[in-house]
Specification:
The chain has 8 helices and 17 strands. The chain has helices at 8-17, 25-46, 68-81, 219-230, 248-258, 268-272, 281-294, 325-337; strands spanning 55-59, 65-67, 87-92, 99-100, 110-118, 129-137, 159-165, 169-174, 179-185, 190-195, 206-208, 241-243, 261-264, 279-280, 298-300, 317-318, 320-323. The structure holds 2,5-anhydro-1,6-di-O-phosphono-D-glucitol and manganese (II) ion (2 copies).
Length: 348
């Protein structure tokens, strides 16, 4: 306890004490992740002063242009988490292959996946960005895990979290026992519990979608957005507000704070390119779905619960519709009304 405040370290240790047979490995791993996020936060805060803005001049495995900070943040995560002996391997949005722990370090029982810098198109314009991560148990012996070790449904996650580099730096975490938010006190260099037991309001009047893709949307998404836009004169009988930050971390944080729905749905343009969606299952959709469900919200592809998907590729992309339960239920129901799919969504 620090002047009446609970630090993230104390919080994690106390959580661990509740788990029978816990060895301290998990606490220690989480501490290394926290350190990595503090380093990234510091770089993001200093921006042009430390020469980290702009393009890296390279492409990642998804064919996206990398920013300098995408590459630097990825390195920070690897270096912070490779040495301590808690991990068997890591996988990142920015790396084609999994990262196996180098021979000189001991190997552990966990797997770490991450999006080192989410919303990186915002970095040069000084708008909020974040880091998303997820921890899985390594199945089997774990001596030399391959990519298949990571292909576990989101329901298997041990922990998920994000750091938000906004006006203040925050860390939001779940280990399957609710969602808690911590704010970085720059003066003491510690995350302090400021948002205990975060829950999402069920009803909302705010939606987030990149409307420039509107002409490619499928009928159920068009219907939902049209009804929101019709406002108090339409079937919803209330006016809606719209937001699009293009940083999933910032959108999810807003939804955790005041409710709302976020959609990056499947559309005709993606289908034509053979893509399953825009956002990545292992690095974005699964960790955010775990947090959203733990806060009382819901997360689907429109057709199925995201956390129930058994991944078949490390870099798999999925449609994402998440946030306040009543709204996500509505959009999901529209997909079935439309006769496009007969599968039912079983929520958490
Ligand atoms: P990343 O910066 O890690 O590639 O992720 C960006 C993601 C997500 O954060 C955001 O919601 C979405 O892509 C924005 O996409 P558009 O630019 O198509 O709106
Ligand atoms: Mn991202
Ligand atoms: Mn990213």
């Amino acid at each position: 306890m620090l002047n009446g405040n609970i630090t993230i370290t104390q919080f994690i240790i106390e959580e661990q004490r509740r788990i029978q047979g816990a060895t301290g490995d998990f606490t220690s791993l989480l501490n290394d992740i926290v350190t990595a996020c503090k380093v990234i936060s510091n770089l993001v805060n200093h921006g042009a002063l430390v020469g980290v803005l702009g393009q890296a001049g390279t492409e990642n495995v998804q064919g996206e242009d990398q920013k300098k900070l995408d590459v630097i943040s990825n390195e920070v995560f690897l270096r912070s988490n490779e040495w301590a002996g808690h991990l068997a391997a890591m996988a990142s949005e920015e790396m084609e292959d999994i990262y196996t722990i180098p021979k000189q370090y001991p190997r552990g029982k966990y797997l770490l996946t991450f999006d080192p810098l989410d919303g990186s198109s915002n970095i040069d314009v000084n708008v909020s960005v974040g880091t998303i991560f997820s921890i899985l148990r390594c199945p089997g012996e774990c001596a030399s895990p391959g990519a298949d070790a990571f292909l576990q449904a989101g329901t298997q996650q041990v922990c998920a979290g994000y750091a938000l580099y906004g006006p203040s730096t925050m860390m939001v975490l779940t280990t399957g026992n609710g969602v808690n938010g911590f704010t970085l006190d720059q003066n003491i260099g510690e995350f302090v519990l400021t948002h205990p037991n975060m829950t999402i309001p069920t009803e909302t009047k705010e939606f987030a979608i990149n409307a420039s893709n509107g002409r490619f949307w499928e009928a159920p998404v068009k219907r939902y957005v049209d009804e929101c836009l019709a406002g108090s004169e339409g079937p919803r009988k209330k006016d809606f507000n719209m937001r699009w930050i293009a940083s999933m971390v910032a959108e999810v944080h807003r939804i955790l704070t005041r409710g709302g729905i976020f959609m990056y749905p499947l559309d005709e343009k993606m289908k034509a390119k053979g893509l399953g969606g825009k956002l990545r299952l292992m690095y974005e959709a699964n960790p955010m779905s775990f947090i959203i469900e733990q806060a009382g919200g819901m997360s689907t592809t429109g057709r199925e619960r995201i956390m129930a998907i058994k991944p078949d590729d490390l870099h798999q992309r999925v449609p994402v519709i998440l946030g306040s339960k009543a709204e996500v239920e509505r959009v999901t129901a529209y997909h079935f009304d439309d006769g496009q799919d007969t599968r039912r969504v079983s929520a958490a």
